[in-house]
Amino acid sequence: MAKKIEILETWQRKLLGQDLDSCSPKELQDIGNQLEISLSNIRARKTQLFEEQIEQLQEKETLLLMENARLSKQCGAQPLQQSNQVVSYLSSCSKNSDIVETDLYIGLPPMRCL
């Protein structure tokens, strides 16, 4: 059992890039292949998680749109009209926030006489 643990720890160090100077070219190739396989598995899992998250967000969007329509009906407002108002408000805010006045300037500080 102790020998297995030692072999696994050695393999782990090699996968982490430690003690590679004692490896043969075949061992280095095997380590590279193992890293490629692991990286491929990680990318596949990441893609799967992103797809699941996109699906959940699309379901949430549908529920929110339905709730928005229900609330708009309840208030007697038009949903499209509200969204146009929000878009125009946000665009006006972004236009107004482009210019900010400060006391900062670019260049050397003014010369002081002593």
Which secondary structure elements does this structure contain, and how are they paired or packed?
Layout: H1 2-15, H2 25-75, H3 79-96
GO molecular function, one term: DNA-binding transcription factor activity
Organism: Salix koriyanagi
Pfam family, one: K-box
What can you see in these coordinates?
The chain has helices at residues 2-15, 25-75, 79-96. With 114 residues, it is mostly helical. The radius of gyration is 30 Å and the shape is flat. The model has no long low-confidence stretch (mean pLDDT 79).
Beta-strand share of residues: under 5%
Q: Can you give the mean pLDDT?
A: 79
Total count of helical runs of at least 4 residues: 3
Query: Structural class, judged by helices and strands?
Result: mainly alpha
The helix content is over 70%
User: What's the gyration radius in Å?
Assistant: 30 Å
Poorly predicted ranges (pLDDT <50, ≥5 residues)? none
Q: Secondary-structure element order, as H and E?
A: HHH
In total, how many beta strands?
0
General form:
flat
**Cα distance, first to last residue?**
80 Å
Largest sheet: none
GO cellular component, one term: nucleus
Domain K-box: 1-81
GO molecular function, one term: DNA-binding transcription factor activity
Protein name: MADS-BOX TRANSCRIPTION FACTOR 56
